[in-house]
Amino acid sequence: MVTNHSVPESSEQALAQLRRGALPHCVLAALATEERYGFELVRVLTETYDLATSEGTIYPLLSRLRRDGLVETTWRESESGPPRRYYRLTDLGERRLAGFQDDWKRFRDAVDDLVLEAGGHS
Amino acid sequence: MSTTNDPISDYRQRLTEASRDLPPDVRSDLHDDLDGHLDEIRRSAGTDAEIRTALDRLGRPEDIVHAAAGEAGVPPPPDPTQAAAATATRPTVRTAERRQGVAGRDVSAILLVVFGAIGGALVFLVFPPLMPIAAIGAYATGLVLLWTSRSWTSGEKLLASLVWPGGLATPLLLGMMGTRTCVTEATGDGVGNMGEAVTTCTGFAFHPAVGIPLFIAVIAAPIVIGLGLLARASRRAAA
Lengths: 122, 239
Hints:
The structure holds 2 protein chains of 2 kinds.
Chain A: H1 11-30, E1 36-37, H2 38-48, H3 58-67, E2 71-78, E3 81-89, H4 91-117
Antiparallel strand pairs in A: 1-3, 2-3
Chain B: H1 7-18, H2 24-44, H3 48-58, H4 61-72, H5 104-122, H6 131-148, H7 154-162, H8 169-177, E1 181-186, E2 197-202, H9 208-238
Antiparallel strand pairs in B: 1-2
């Protein structure tokens, strides 16, 4: 894993760091209301929310979430082709997501107050 | 290296190549997920152009394998296409910690494993009673540095540990012990009458035609392995 000890040199780099940090919980959130199969999940995260540049790198993250017990998978038959692997949250994953929602609100408000207020923007 | 006109098959082949050195469970997980994704691309994308676009969005197999190695906590396999890849699209942030070349720690590990016991034995010249401790201690330190390093796979560490245990000291020691000495005595009676010459040999040695190449191979093996491990560590440190 790349550990980020350096100050980002550009907005692009800063956003890349932020995306990487937020992505695991965004994956959990994308599974909050329903189970999704890999392709669908990965498309939602990249297309709708622009949270990763390469779809494929999300799959190793999904494997880690599964190893950590936050998501589980089931294979389901599909009419139009081979079986699909569906991902869904475990109880632990639900609890972890709920905890993050509080943390995120606090973090988001703090950064808003500081960064957006600086220079008179809001 | 496109061998067919089917970009999906080419992609699968590149993935298989790139993921060869991943741990088996990580590799099979990744293949399950990506096979499913490639199936979906085939299902949903129509034209060749759409398929290629979808594969671009999926990302390079080498990058995905790199991410999988990272999540699994293992050293990433070397990327043979790295020189050709466009670095502008890579989101990874290079940190000030990136090392060029091999860490001194790794170099010490290899030196101590291969030569440590010999170096320790040289303590004999200075303070004889300390020799066994110095020799064993040096080799053991090398083993600890080897096994705690993150630059090598377990297979590589095992190879360096077993060829040979004790480093080069072991074959040198065994070589000195396993010699064949022959003594020829003349059984004369001391007053000018030559008797027979009797040769008695003890010990064991290979015939020189076998023994010399064998000795060279046995000495070369740990050195070659040590250099190979350092080369891999250097490649991985720069990745």
